[in-house]
Design goal:
Elements lengths: L1 H11 L1 H5 L3 H10 L11 H9 L3 H38 L25 H4 L1
The structure holds iron/sulfur cluster.
């Protein structure tokens, strides 16, 4: 359940996570060009224009990167959910103990609880 929740959350963040990719940044800059006449075009836009590529090609590359981040978001979120689920399960599930184990926080190591003497047996 936590894996699914983590995977879904990770997939919903794929657009924000993909914002670090240069192809996605370029596509965003093409979609939202600088409208201020005092501000020059960004270096990325100038480089893109100098290549003579179509805008559709830049959008297709960005869409491919977004899809990869979507899949990666599911995987990363699922893994984080799995780790948290394992940590919680480790806290909740009590382990079977075959022998008496004293509380290490309160035990004085006085051995009064030991009714079996290994020296006498020998
Ligand atoms: S009787 Fe002594 S050794 Fe045994 S659990 Fe208590 S404090 Fe620890």
């Amino acid at each position: 359940m936590l894996m699914l929740a983590g995977g879904w959350t990770g997939s919903q963040l794929h657009e924000q996570l993909a914002g670090v990719n240069s192809k996605v940044k370029l596509a965003k800059q093409i979609l939202n060009p600088v409208t201020d006449k005092n501000q020059a075009e960004t270096f990325e836009i100038e480089a893109f224009k100098s290549q003579g590529k179509q805008q559709s090609q830049a959008f297709a590359e960005a869409a491919e990167v977004l899809h990869q981040f979507y899949i990666g978001g599911w995987i990363l979120g699922g893994f984080i959910g799995l780790v948290f689920g394992g940590l919680i399960a480790g806290r909740i599930i009590s382990r079977y103990q075959a022998d008496y184990v004293p509380n290490k926080g309160t035990c004085f190591s006085c051995t009064r609880c030991v009714d079996y003497c290994p020296v006498k047996k020998a």
